[in-house]
Design brief:
The chain has 251 residues and is of the alpha/beta class. It has six helices and twelve strands. The strands form three sheets. A seven-stranded parallel sheet has the order 3-2-7-10-11-1-12, covered by helices on one side. The mean pLDDT is 95.
Length: 251
């Protein structure tokens, strides 16, 4: 039985404020010689969140205490508009005072079959290791209309259960290659957040949260961190099918 925490936000600004307050608390708990490690996701919702943070909250936390990674990346150059790194850089990172050495991008311009193992080794070098697996303090994930998360699609569900930390995937329609974290790393994080907005995602949210049998086809339904700390950050539209008893907090 799932025990996810579900928070519904009235608007993107309330979501940004919540995110910053959360980061401030976490950073306050970080030792002086340590960092808070986070894997970012791509997509329209994180873009709007990053824009809101860079506009109104960029000076409220100590960015030097954060190390930033990515949950997945498209195999394109970092200057390409499709790049998850490019989106995060142009909407957040270039506006905040974070040391360049604290940013660890997946190199989408490299051969993905070479980049995936390189990034796996980088995670081993930079993150805490728990039970032999790199462990993020926080992983941010999106949810696709088909139930995919990171760059693991229903047609390649086996990738979620790979023994590797990072693997190469292929978008089922465009055939574009991607690099993605696997479930082995995702579920070893201290905390995982699904960031989901829009009416078009409401059905998948409902099916996963309620553990409908059809959700077994969705990679996102297997995100269940060993820590037990999975939080859904939703807007009103993406949460509209959920029974109110499932929702922990409205903001």
């Amino acid at each position: 039985m799932r025990n996810d925490k579900i928070i519904v936000f009235d608007n993107i600004d309330s979501l940004a404020k919540y995110s910053i307050e959360y980061l401030k608390r976490e950073i306050n708990d970080v030792r002086k010689d340590d960092y808070f490690t986070i894997a970012l996701s791509g997509g329209a919702t994180p873009k709007n969140l990053f824009l809101s943070i860079s506009k109104d909250y960029k000076d409220e936390i100590d960015w030097s205490k954060i190390k930033i990674f990515w949950s997945d990346e498209r195999c394109v150059n970092p200057e390409d508009e499709q790049s998850n790194y490019n989106m995060a850089y142009n909407n957040l990172l270039k506006y905040v005072n974070i040391p360049e050495e604290n940013i660890f991008r997946m190199k989408g311009e490299e051969i993905p079959e070479v980049e995936a193992p390189r990034y796996s080794k980088l995670l081993l070098d930079e993150l805490k290791i728990i039970n032999g697996v790199p462990s993020f303090d926080l992983i941010m994930l999106g949810l696709g209309e088909d139930g995919h998360t990171a760059s693991i699609f229903p047609e390649q569900l086996e990738l979620f259960f790979s023994d590797q930390f990072c693997v190469t995937s292929i978008h089922p329609q465009t055939k574009q290659k991607r690099i993605t974290l696997t479930g082995k790393v995702i579920n070893n994080a201290a905390k995982v957040i699904f960031l989901v907005t829009g009416k078009n995602k409401s059905e998948k949210v409902y099916e996963i949260v309620n553990e409908n049998s059809i959700s077994e086809k969705y990679p996102a339904s297997y995100v269940q961190p060993d820590s037990g700390k999975l939080i859904w950050l939703l807007d009103k539209e993406s949460s509209q099918l959920l029974d109110k008893s499932k929702i922990n907090l409205f903001i």
